[in-house]
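Marked as duplicate of an earlier ticket. Keeping the data here for the record.
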Amino acid sequence: MLRFSRIIMILLLPMVVLLGVFEYAVFDLDYFEAKFIENNTMVETGLELEQLLRVSQQTLDYLKDRTDTLVLYEEIDGEMIQVFEARELAHMEDVKRLFDIGFAIRNISLILLVLFGGWLFINHRRSFWHSMRTGSIFFAALILVIGVYAWIDFDKAFVIFHKLLFTNDLWILDPTEDIMIQMLPIDFFMGIGLKTALLYTGYLILSIFGGTWLKNMNK
């Protein structure tokens, strides 16, 4: 029981925090607005800022299963157009499946953490803090390797990431035709990655040093 509870803490706690931080970064509509203004996306897409934010909110609602369709219509130059075409819609179905899996992993992991992490905290307080610190050190090393590689060649890391997650090439969109890639160019995802990395690094630092101090306090 002790060993299994420690493994749960080491592997699942930092993963749950990472998923939570990533969710916070992705579902931040203020970030969308800032990037649209920075990239002058209104000119690129022909959509006004209000329209872009409406489409973005509906997309986020779709990923959170609050709506079941992304067949959206907006007016451009007096003509109603379908925002996302078939290829973009098919890709977003794949993306939604990944988010569904991520939400399921987070929820199951939280249940296991409450059960086994709670047991560890009550019965073996020092092992609890030690496990928290160990998990953070492991994930810090993993994130460092991934971060350095992405910093050296983000475009290549971006392609590898998509090839690992998707079994098709629907994610390859045409920036001259597809509104989705015009709205969300690669620097948009770089910003989300950076925000996630900074917030998660803050957690890891606090967890490592806090876990060390609390472990020593519970000798």
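See parent ticket for discussion. The beta strands are 73-76, 79-82.
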